[in-house]
Amino acid sequence: MQTAYFIGVDGGGTQCRTRLTNQNGDVLAACSGGPANIWSQFDSAMKQVCQLLDETLHAAGLGPHEAGQTHVVLGLAGGNISRVRAQAQTWPHAYASWQVFSDVEIACPGAHNGQPGAVLITGTGSQGAVWDGQQFRCVGGWGMSLSDQGSGAWLGQQALRLALKAHENLVEHTPLTRALMAHFDHEPETLLAWSVQATPAQWGQFAPQIFQAAREQDNHGVALLACCAQEVSALVSNLSQNGRYPVAMLGGLALPIYPWLSEGIQAMLVPAGGDALSGALRLAHLCA
Fold first, then answer.
1. Is 156 exposed, middle or buried (0-12, 13-18, 19+ CB in 10 A)?
2. Which of 66, 134, 218, 250 has the fewest beta carbons closer than 10 A?
């Protein structure tokens, strides 16, 4: 019987990670590198992935011959966009099998130890996916301009809009809105110039400040988090399908927003059993 190897790849907007196992599930090597978002930077992302795959095999003492016995599953940021997903699927390779998913999809079987379930990633952006054991259904992941509701970037944007309203006396000022406008020297034009080029991560940098304000019972801070929790709750309800699937909530906002969710929504949530790489490896076995 020919020896088989499996590599899971988790490629996000900030870094890419790999994990190599044998057919018994023993971890033989793991590597990490730069970002791998195939929607925003397709060529550089794929080159990063291939370089890391080579490094992972080398770290385990394996070479080109073993590559032909290796089944690879790529979970890549931007993999929810069908056009670039198809491009990545046809990228030249020398592996036994090669399957492309989105990064949120591989998180599903990882979080639920191979069983059907859903994940909601709430960090800088937001995206969810449900796996029924055979196929995925995804929600969100269309970027800050079109979705990302309930995320750190969305929360920061809502807060700065509110701060600008307060600056123009359309709503009352609170310590939060004053502090946010102070970041821009209380100048709307400075805020405008910043907003034109701000990245989602830069919008999201204000999220901790908003949570702190809410803890101090700032009226606007409390209202912003209540609205954020409402958006997250809508996503959880959609993914859970009325309790049919357990939902694991991941990402930087998952823990701080949890107390703001209703008991009913909290009851739909479960801790993640494993990480995205373990999910990619489970899929690699299924796709082999």
1. buried
2. 134
